[in-house]
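Checklist before submission:
- one chain only
- standard amino acids only
- sequence pasted in full

Submission:
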Amino acid sequence: MFGIPPERPVMLLVGRVAYEKNIGFILDVLADVRRAVPDVLLVLAGEGPALPALRRRVETEGLTSSVLFVGYLDRRHGLADCYRSADVFVFASRTETQGLVLLEALALGVPVVSTAVLGTKEVLHNARGAVVVEEDRAAFARAVVDVLTRADLRRSLASAARIHVAAHWSSAVMARRLLELYKRLAGGRRRPANVSAA
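Returned file contents:
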């Protein structure tokens, strides 16, 4: 996809390109990852207000050969292929409420390296297929390099990711969890006392 050679190592980030998504941190990590994996490519899929500043930074820091901006991708067509083209999904948002892109990556068997705050913490709690690290540039870069350079680890994480999502986040599982929640809420509700007319 996008003319990327199949043997080229690919880091992927999908989402709204906004400042609170902490994409600048991912660019810092990329600079470190390139020392160990010189031909790594970071693919950024999405649009948003931070895009012009990120493009300028990539150019200023000489990262243009290592970063590919692909813009918005339709969920029904290009997005799944974009995920499948990646060797690792990277994420470091500080304000995530749900972290659906993490579930999409895991469901498609893409190993994840991510921080875990707010909604991301809930999605990645006990998540197999994901490597959770602090927002520390060196530690994050080491985790990414490990996934990119160890085919056995990538395969293991990819398999575990699919199993984890099917077991904990599939539509059937989520429907059961929602039904159980409704039952608990309905069971805990007090019935109003009968009021007799005077």
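Reviewer check: The mean pLDDT is 90.
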